[in-house]
Amino acid sequence: MSAHILPYSGQTPVSAEIQSELLGLLERGEVVALPTETCYGLAVRADLPEPLSALSKLKGRQESQTFTWHVGRAETALPLAKWPALTKRLTDAFWPGPLTLVLPIEADQAKKHGLQHIVRDGHVGVRLPQHAATAELLASAPFPVVMTSANATGAPPMVRALDVAEAFGAQVAAVADGDDCQLGGSSTILALGPGRFELLRGGRISLEDLQSAAGLRLLFVCTGNTCRSPMAEGIARSRIAAALGTDPGGISAFGFRSSSAGVYASANAPVSPESVEVLAEWDIDIQDHTSTPSATGIAHGVDEIYGLTDGHVYALQQTVPDSIGDHVRMLSPSNRSIPDPIGGSVSLYRETRDAIAKAIDERLSQWL
After folding, report:
1. H helical segments located in 129-261
2. Which residues of the chain have a pLDDT value below 70?
3. How many Cβ atoms are within 10 Å of 35's Cβ, its own excluded?
4. Residue 351: enclosing H or E segment and its boundaries?
5. What is d(CA 65, CA 56) in angstroms, rounded to the nearest whole number?
6. Model-level pTM greater than 0.90?
């Protein structure tokens, strides 16, 4: 006996009656099949253990294996993210779509959202599918919903409603026929947490594309690129690494790059000894830095450019391409210029270092 099939095309509005019927089935703990852009998914409510157990049996998988929380709006999941700005860049780029994010979650947050039964090792997977009617249904549900690909474990995911209905029969209360799924296959799965930017399952989105969307290429610019901006480059790299739970060299795995240049810099001049000394006090090593003209630094590709003074910002705005002009700003969010310590005492360099660090700390929440 085939499952009940409901018209659910993503090209036309789905009736309120059909959405209400599907929500009612989910509320009662039934399994329903819903379309996504990749394949059909078997869906149940996630806040009760019985539907989850039934779904595990239907899939032929161990109950210790978890399921992915599916949401109808990105805003539902973003409050769980450890790094809201970084995660939002990913969701802006790839949601709705074939990307599952595996995020760390605290026990109290899991319980608050009704996700305690699908948390494994302190993590939960979350995805926003690219099917308008399915997303609308998920957004309106007063309980969390999980979905898993419509197939027996190890078999190819199904992309046609009729195949799902025939394969699972009355074990699925209803199949929402949203036409054939466009992409086929499975979503890309990215684990995102302290020290971790890990592709757990490949898909249509490459690791390089994920890194490009998640991270930022930051360029810090002063006059000669021998003191202030090299210090900013080193401090930013250190602060970002600490926040991401990695070492300074590891920020590239998250898509971040910290570099520096000077609006009037010559190439390959050494960094000032005092800058090296005061950053070494914080275990930040910039002794191998050599100067780079700002045009060269920009040519390497940047997302955000920070001048250390308003004069640097003005000089940059006269030369950068129009496409990145809106991304040139003062390092200090309150537009305080960072004083030039060149020729001054080590004490003055420390004051400059501290002012740079304060500005970077104020910017950090915008980056992460």
Report:
1. 132-140, 161-168, 207-214, 228-244
2. 1-2, 10-12
3. 29
4. helix 346-367
5. 8
6. yes
Q: How many domains does the chain have?
A: 2
The confidence score (pLDDT) of residue 4 equals 85
Q: What is the pLDDT of residue 172?
A: 97
Q: Which helix (H) or strand (E) holds 109?
A: helix 107-112
**Structure-block tokens of residue 229:** 């901006």
The parent domain of residue 235 ranges over: 215-367
What is the C-alpha radius of gyration for the chain, rounded to an integer number of angstroms? 26
What pLDDT score does 9 carry? 75
**β strands within the chain, DSSP E:** 4-7, 32-35, 40-45, 68-70, 99-104, 123-127, 145-149, 174-177, 188-193, 196-201, 217-222, 257-262, 304-307, 328-330
Q: Which candidate, 203, 247, 200, 192, places its Cα nearest to that of 368?
A: 192
Q: Can you tell me the distance from the alpha carbon of 22 to that of 92, in angstroms, rounded to the nearest whole number?
A: 28
Q: Which of 169, 188, 207 is the last residue of a domain?
A: 207
Q: How far apart are CA 39 and CA 102, in angstroms?
A: 20
The Cα–Cα gap between 133 and 34 comes to 9
- Phi first, then psi, for residue 147 (nearest 5°) are -135, 150
Residue 12: how many other CB atoms lie within 10 Å:
10
In this structure, are 230 and 196 located in the same domain?
no
CA nearest to 341, candidates 224, 234, 218, 219: 224
